[in-house]
Amino acid sequence: MTKQVENNEKKIADESYRSISIVLDSLDALVYVSDMEAYEVLLANAYGRSIWGDIRGQTCWKVLQTDQDGPCSFCTNNRLLDETGAPAGVYVWEFQNTVNKRWYQCRDLAIRWIDGRLVRLEIATDITDRKAIEEELLAAKKYAEELSQKDELTGLNNRRVFFERGHNILELAKRSGHSVSVIMMDIDHFKMTNDKYGHAVGDKVLQAVAEPLKRIVREIDIVARIGGEEFAFVLPETCLEDATIMAERLRAEIENLVVTNNEHQIKITASFGLVACEDGNIGIDALLANADEALYIAKRNGRNQIKKYH
């Protein structure tokens, strides 16, 4: 090859590079080209240079990312070629850059560069604002789902969750043969408190009672407010004896609660009805009805006590 031919080819390559650069510099997105084997950056457009500077000749994973001691584990080069080593088309993905923490939608493509070698062309559009909106929407959805499952006043599960999860627990118990206990609890003389001091004080009583319930039950247990002053528990893998121990702890904790209203100190007690199912073959509705029957006996016999269903 003569010197003249070499110069002509270099001139054509330079012109091609400048033409490509002019086009890519006009884009409002990061565009860079890197060698797929050496990871050398061959081109970065104006958008990229405004963030990373002139990075031509540098290794892409060293300058475009941080804390990398080798090619990025999330590098998409292996997705850009087919089994024959030919370009496989555009690969689209989303990624949060480790340097500036911005989110980008990346469109990666293997192409032949002006000198004939295979290179990676990436066009990365900043989608940080969109991702922020998506995260807000997801947070709002999660919050709405939590609200749909929670009693707003006490923060406990609501009636719907009690029956849905209680049913699931009993189905599991049926398969495993493990026992399940159900507790029904009612705040004593709650209507009298409401009538005497008003609903705002009644709400304070409900909130005060909810605190030991949250603290004492296990993570696997279901505790819910299922009515005005009525609370119910499903205790997986719990026999009637162990359920009685938990109910007694709850009863003693509630007995020690005091709600203050101006100069009045309001004492609180609660009554409990318990039932156990040894194999999961009784439905949650029937178990709750049996626990409620035991609760009725506890209230009829003087309140602030525990009764078991027989």
TrEMBL record:
One of its GO terms (biological process) is cell adhesion involved in single-species biofilm formation. PROSITE patterns: GGDEF. GO terms for cellular component: plasma membrane. Keywords: Coiled coil. Residues 240-267 form a coiled coil. It catalyses: 2 GTP = 3',3'-c-di-GMP + 2 diphosphate. InterPro entries: Diguanylate_Cyclase, GGDEF_dom, Nucleotide_cyclase, PAS-like_dom_sf, Rev_trsase/Diguanyl_cyclase. Its EC number is 2.7.7.65. GO terms for molecular function: diguanylate cyclase activity. It is an enzyme of class 2 (transferase). It holds the Pfam family GGDEF. CDD domains: GGDEF. Residues 178-310 form the GGDEF domain. This is diguanylate cyclase. It comes from Sulfuricella denitrificans (strain DSM 22764 / NBRC 105220 / skB26).
